Amino acid sequence: MTNPCSPSSPSSSSPTSAHHRRYEEPAAAAAPYVGNGGRVDHGISFPAAVDDVEGAELSPPRCEWEFRLAATVPSPSLAGASEAIGSVDFDPAGRLLATGGIARKVRIYDVAGLPSSPSPAACICVPAKLSSVRWRPEEGGRRAVGCGDYDGVVTEYDVERGVAAWERDEHAGRRVWALDYAPRGAQTSMAASGSDDRTAHVWDPRAPSGSWATARAGGAVLCVEFDPSGGPQLAVGSADRRAAVYDVRALGHGEVASMDGHARAVTYVRWAPARRVVTSAADGTHRLWEWPSTPELSGPAREVRSYSGHVSGRSFVGMGLWRGAGLVASGSESNHVFVYDLRWGKPVWVHPFDVASDSSPDAEGFVSAVTWLQGDADCGGALVAGRSDGVLKMFTCQPRRGDDHQVDEL
C-alpha cells in the first residue's frame, strides 16, 4: 500500500498524513536467523527438492529462476502529479491487473496486451485515495474489484459498468488499510477489512450492509488475508508489531496463533502452504512462521526464518508470495525489487527501478507495491511491481535450466 502517514509510535492507531511516508522513528535492526528444526514444507513445489530446510540455509543462496522485463507502463500523469501506486492485484484468472493509489483511480490493464499496449483498458474514478484494491472471486461471470480508502469506506465496483455496486462504511470514518475476499471454493462467501480503528471486520459481501464479526488488535490493522486454500483462517497484522491468525467461525474466541518478533509495525501478511504465514514489517524484515498442526491447539507461532536486504523503515513497499514456487517479493525504499526464496534469508534476485526520465537524478521514490501471478511453478509466472511515481513493470519468471543458479543482484 502507498500509505503516506507517520504514526508517532509503532503502536499508534491514528497516523497523521505525510508525503509517501509512514514511519519516522529509527528503524530497528533485523533479527538474526532462527532455524526451523529441519522440517521441510512439503506443500511448496520448489524447483529443486530440499530435504533439509535448515541445511539449505547453511548453503549459499541461489537463484533458480530467470527474470525478464516483459513490459513497462509509464506514469500516466505529468511530472509533479501524485500517482503513487499503493496496491496491485491480478484477477483470479490472471487476465486482468488492477492498480490503485492516491490518484483516486482504479486502473484496469489487459495483462496479455501490456508489452505492446501499456494503456489501461478501463479506468474507474473513485472519491478518495485508495490503500487497497482486491479482485472479488467471479460469481456468475460478473467482474468486480473491491477498494479500501482513506475515508474509511470499502467499495466494490462493477468493472464492466465502471460504477459502484455497493459501499460499506462501518469503520466509523477511520482509514481502511486492507481488504481481502475469501477464495472461490471457501466454505462461505466472506470479505475482510482492516482499519485505523484497531479492528478487522469479517462480513458477507453478498449482504455488505448486514451484520459482521470483529477481531480487535492493539493498533491499527494494516493487513488482512484469508487462507487461499479455502480454510477458515484469517491472518491479521497491525501497528502494535504483532500478527495473528483467527478462525473466522469463532472470532470472539481470540487468536489461533500469535506472531511476535517484529520490531515495528506489521504491514503485510501472506499465506504460505502447510499452516505457515509470511509477515513483513517496517523493521526491514520479512518473517516465516508456523504453528502446531493440531487445530485444537492455539498459542505462539514459531519463527522459522527472517529475510532481510530490502529497505523498509518509513514507507509501505509491498510484499507478495508466489505460493507455488516459494518466492517472496517486495519493494524497497532503495528503489529496487527484491525476491527471496523461502529457503534462504538473503535475496536471490535484486532489480533496480529506473528513475523516470522527467525526474531529477536524485528524485525521491521507491518501489511501493508488488504482486505475483499465481500458478504452477513448472509453467513459470509473472511479477508486477509499482513505484511511487506511478510506473509499473512486469517481469516474467521461468525456471532456470542447467547449473546456472547464481544470485542475481547489483
UniProtKB/TrEMBL annotation:
Residues 1-17 have a biased composition (Low complexity). Keywords: WD repeat. InterPro entries: RUP1/2, WD40/YVTN_repeat-like_dom_sf, WD40_repeat_dom_sf, WD40_rpt. It comes from the Eukaryota. WD repeats lie at residues 78-111, 259-290. Residues 1-34 are annotated as: Disordered. Transmembrane segments: none annotated. This is Anaphase-promoting complex subunit 4 WD40 domain-containing protein. The lineage of its organism: Eukaryota, Viridiplantae, Streptophyta, Embryophyta, Tracheophyta.
